[in-house]
Design a protein that fits this description.
single chain, about 110 residues, alpha+beta, about 10% strand
């Protein structure tokens, strides 16, 4: 905590510190609100399902503060018709095998 301003007392310094912290929180909130807006702009500019899903997953992952994210689209037959992911490379994805089939958490 910075030293109190001479003659103004500890209460003023405490209030000033709280205001600075609130300002930082508001800047962070504004930055976080930009993430979904960027996704909306990207979605509007791409039309293929895979191209639309990728930035949504990336934005949701960033917004949640997660390292990895994934989104599956269930097709008419009840299995995943498309699967988008974020946070790991193609080589890691290839090592993990085929994407989920859309039959639940345990793929049963």
């Amino acid at each position: 905590m910075p030293a109190p301003v001479a003659g103004l007392g500890d209460d003023f310094a405490t209030v000033l510190d709280q205001l600075v912290e609130e300002g930082r929180r508001l800047v962070d909130l504004q930055d976080r609100q930009q993430i979904p807006l960027d996704a909306i702009i990207t979605v509007g500019s791409d039309l293929s399902l895979r191209d639309v899903l990728a930035p949504i997953v990336t934005s949701a992952t960033r917004l949640a503060g997660a390292n990895y994210g994934a989104l599956g689209v269930v097709g008419p037959d009840g299995t995943l018709s498309d699967f988008a992911y974020s946070g790991f490379s193609e080589s890691v994805r290839d090592e993990t095998g085929s994407p989920p089939a859309g039959r639940g958490l345990l793929d049963c």
